[in-house]
Design the sequence.
């Protein structure tokens, strides 16, 4: 690869990694709310005994990239900024470059003497031989920590049974659950719902008969129009539990997007 090509790649990488210059992730990249998958990914990423690469799998627009940026923001509290690399293989230039060449340019121009690197690969399914590179990096670089995302779930799952066994953990990210949906609502209502569900676990009567207009309004907006206009006694506990873990309606997804999840 000629010098000009390396300069082009480095320019793209500089644009993707502003913390190399200023030490922080732009706030508009991280969003104020963390999905449940963030905490699961962080737990695996930082596990003290079991070393695993982490791959976040799911359709577009469910927050995979945001989780990567939130993880980077977290790492910057303890890790030198120039030890952290973010790459999006959705970029037309980076699609044409293998992971090994990108790491070579990163190490020669940015990381220099850093030995413990934190690598975040977005839309990794577009990278050439990505599964073999993840396998090679896991086997040969025990000081590296790697997290990646991918939108082609069947492909990722298939590779996980080949190269990924014992090396990476695949976390599937669904659309918002009802529990996550209420996280974008006012804090008071969030606390109210958590308390309500906690008490309902041992007291069905309390759930069925307590005055819950805000709660019912949320249910109505989530599964419109099924529960709209229903009274508190018409919301069975089993249905509430199902709603908390069920996927959202298109209208709810739009509300989440508007809230910048």
Sequence:
């Amino acid at each position: 690869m000629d010098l000009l090509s390396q300069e082009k790649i480095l320019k793209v990488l500089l644009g993707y990694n502003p913390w190399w210059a200023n030490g922080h992730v732009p706030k508009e990249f991280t969003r104020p709310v963390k999905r449940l998958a963030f905490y699961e990914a962080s737990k695996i990423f930082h596990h003290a005994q079991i070393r695993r690469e982490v791959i976040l799998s799911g359709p577009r627009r469910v927050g995979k990239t945001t989780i990567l940026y939130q993880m980077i923001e977290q790492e910057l509290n303890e890790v030198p900024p120039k030890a952290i690399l973010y790459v999006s293989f959705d970029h037309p230039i980076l699609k044409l470059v293998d992971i090994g060449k990108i790491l070579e340019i990163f190490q020669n121009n940015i990381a220099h003497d850093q030995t413990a690197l934190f690598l975040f690969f977005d839309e990794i399914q577009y990278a050439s031989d990505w599964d073999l590179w993840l396998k090679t990096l896991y086997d040969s670089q025990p000081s590296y920590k790697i997290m990646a995302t991918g939108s082609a779930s069947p492909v990722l799952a298939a590779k996980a049974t080949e190269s990924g066994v014992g090396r990476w953990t695949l976390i599937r990210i669904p659309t918002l659950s009802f529990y996550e949906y209420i996280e974008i609502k006012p804090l008071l209502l969030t606390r109210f719902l958590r308390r309500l569900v906690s008490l309902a676990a041992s007291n069905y009567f309390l759930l069925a008969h307590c005055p819950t207009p805000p709660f019912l309004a949320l249910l109505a907006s989530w599964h419109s129009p099924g529960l709209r206009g229903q009274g508190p006694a018409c919301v069975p506990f089993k249905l509430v539990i199902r709603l908390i873990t069920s996927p959202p309606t298109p209208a709810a997804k739009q509300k989440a997007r508007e809230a910048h999840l």
